[in-house]
Specification:
By secondary structure, the chain is α+β, with helices and mostly antiparallel strands. Helix content is about 30%, strand content about 20%. The radius of gyration is 25 Å and the shape is globular.
Length: about 600
């Protein structure tokens, strides 16, 4: 099944991917980054899945699905020769243990249905011991236990459980899958119908807090993106994961397969920026508390990512028993990039703390104290090479984007002093801001070609250069900014979409073999940059082309590969939905209006 054939459901602590065919092929419990109990996404049915659908593929005439209005409740309907049936999938906001609820309803006629479930703990590796208890199925394997409440009798065989059942118009059958630690007592039963109503009310109320204002033109795309970002929030701590999946390939059949089930400071700050702009200040408060806990300690120990509760050790390893999505190996869990130096993260974090204050979040003394220690570290290390925004696994370089974001860190710290009366070495930071700016203009700009470059002394370009006007480093109408945008259009476009940088075959900075698709975030950046320099018609044209890449329920992966006409990379990806929201906002403003970024930094 293609990546875009999946939809996400979740309870703001974990998430499942449900295929168009009615199969749950990915679910990690109890957290986003826990081992999966359904893993066929990265292997086959033998690695665990739970399918419900019409019996016999020949009897299906059409399939359609949607999210119930402004919620994360998925409805899939099949028309068959005998009638129409609907499966409603959702995960109720958690009370004690995580639940996955699947309600089957016959809408018209009579339909023969079927279900099959294979529970496999530890990423498809452990075949659990399954027994019947009080009419339920219990699966136990190591630390994991799961219970399946089925309204129809299931027959075991070949390490799976199956059933076929007939439904007539008006019939409704709820299935409930519940996980709990194997050493704990059996969890209490839930009322799936009541939980459906409560889940719908919670999501509807949350979505109603957004005032779309001038963005009614792209209302549906923006609200779906906001709901997706909320779904990637780990409610107990406020951490925000980059995606709920691991190892969905950036290059089909290749090795660019990474685990994104962690909290990247960069991705999280960009997500918070989008949520704050939409009025969701509570999420900003929770994330700020998560941040202060996660990074507490020496500033030189700051990591680019953490676990959802702030864990620092995220060792990378391979799972050889999983064949990988479309044989894209290796399948990895953990992420070795956790140990990289990425100087741009300091700018992202400090900018987000400034934006949080500007949005009305009250001051906390330890927030400023931690920010000052981050600035102390940056003052001594901003001029070092790093791995940069794209987490390259080649040699460190002086990436221009990293230097620009170091400038942002100094700039926003100064503005904290000027706007909110914080105490700090303002004159020293102003001198630092000027020194960084001067060096970038001297070493990171190619005057002959009128463009900024990926790193000092290089001729390659990088899509992150499109963010220069958005940060306020230079005005959007500056000739050097316009020249950079035009250079990116000439050298980094592939069939109308923007690549991150020249592919590995032509650029040794990457350190990884194989190609990749076009990063969707980069193309959204270009759309916003075009609008900022007055090319609004071209900006809208690109933006709407990007919107057309969303799947049928409005979700985007990390990349789009024009070679295959398919979404690739982890899914759904916060780093794609965030710039969608920002671009929609910029494109919705009157011609000549200041950008959202200038509204914060001006």
């Amino acid at each position: 099944m293609r990546i875009e054939d999946y939809a996400i459901i979740g309870d703001m602590q974990s998430a499942a991917l449900v295929g168009r065919d009615g199969s749950v092929d990915w679910l990690c419990l109890p957290r986003f980054d826990s081992p999966s109990c359904f893993s066929s996404l990265l292997g086959d049915e033998g690695n665990g899945h739970w399918w419900i659908g019409p019996a016999g593929t020949r009897r299906r005439l059409s399939t359609r699905r949607r999210y119930r209005h402004n919620t994360l409740i998925l409805e899939t309907e099949w028309d068959t020769e005998g009638g129409t049936v609907r499966v409603t999938d959702f995960m109720p906001p958690r009370q004690a243990n995580p639940d996955l609820v699947r309600i089957v309803e016959c809408l018209t006629g009579t339909v023969e249905m079927a279900t099959q479930i294979r529970i496999r703990f530890d990423y498809g590796r452990i075949v659990p011991w399954v027994r019947r208890s009080d009419g339920l199925l219990q699966a136990i394997g190591g630390p994991d236990s799961a219970w399946l409440h089925s309204p129809v009798p299931l027959q075991g065989g070949d390490y799976a459980h199956r059933a076929t059942f007939r439904m007539s118009a008006g019939d409704r059958l709820p299935f409930v899958f519940t996980w709990h630690p194997s050493h704990s007592p059996k969890p209490q039963d839930i009322d799936p119908i009541a939980e459906l109503a409560e889940t719908e009310a919670i999501w509807t109320e949350w979505a109603s807090q957004w005032d779309p204002g001038a963005e009614t033109r792209w209302h549906d795309a923006v609200i779906r993106s906001l709901i997706t970002l909320k779904a990637l929030t780990y409610a107990p701590t406020g951490g925000i994961v980059a995606a709920p999946t691991t190892s969905l390939p950036e290059d089909l059949g290749g090795v660019r397969n990474w685990d994104y089930r962690y909290c990247w400071l960069r991705d999280a700050t960009m997500t918070l920026d989008a949520l704050i702009y939409a009025g969701y200040v509570e999420e900003a408060r929770d994330w700020r508390e998560w941040l202060l806990r996660a990074i507490a300690g020496r500033p030189q120990d700051l990591q680019i990512m953490y676990g959802v509760a702030g864990e620092r050790r995220l060792p990378e390893m391979e799972l050889p028993w999983l064949e990988g999505y479309e044989e894209s190996r290796p399948v990895r869990i953990g992420n070795a990039a956790v140990d990289q130096l990425q100087l741009d993260v300091y700018g992202e974090v400090i900018n987000c703390l400034y934006v949080s204050r500007a949005s009305g979040l009250p001051a906390i003394s330890r927030t400023w104290a931690i920010q000052r220690t981050l600035m102390d570290f940056l003052e001594s290390h901003w001029d070092e090479p790093d791995e940069g925004l794209w987490e390259v696994r080649g040699p460190r370089r002086h990436f221009v984007h990293s230097k620009v974001m170091a400038w942002v860190a100094a700039d926003r710290s100064i503005r904290q002093i000027e706007r909110f009366g914080q105490t700090g070495p303002a004159d020293r930071w102003r001198a630092l801001r000027e020194r960084i700016h001067s060096e970038v203009m001297e070493k990171g700009f190619d005057a002959d070609r009128n463009t900024f470059t990926q790193s000092y002394g290089s001729r390659e370009l990088d899509a992150s250069l499109l963010l220069i006007p958005q940060t306020g480093f230079l005005p959007a109408r500056d000739p050097r900014v316009i020249g950079t945008i035009e250079a990116v259009e000439r050298e980094l476009m592939s069939e109308g979409f923007v690549l991150r940088y020249p592919l590995a075959q032509r650029n040794s900075v990457d350190g990884i073999t194989g190609g990749e698709g076009a990063f969707l975030a980069c193309s959204f950046w270009l759309a916003e940059a075009r609008a900022m320099i007055g090319r609004r018609h071209e900006a809208v044209e690109l933006f709407e082309r990007l919107l057309s890449l969303r799947n049928d329920v409005g979700l985007l992966a990390e990349e789009y590969d024009p070679r295959y006409g398919r979404l690739v990379g982890n899914f759904p990806q916060a780093f794609s939905h965030v710039p969608l929201i920002h671009a929609a906002h910029t494109l919705s403003q009157p011609e000549g209006a200041p950008s959202r970024h200038h509204a914060y930094i001006g």
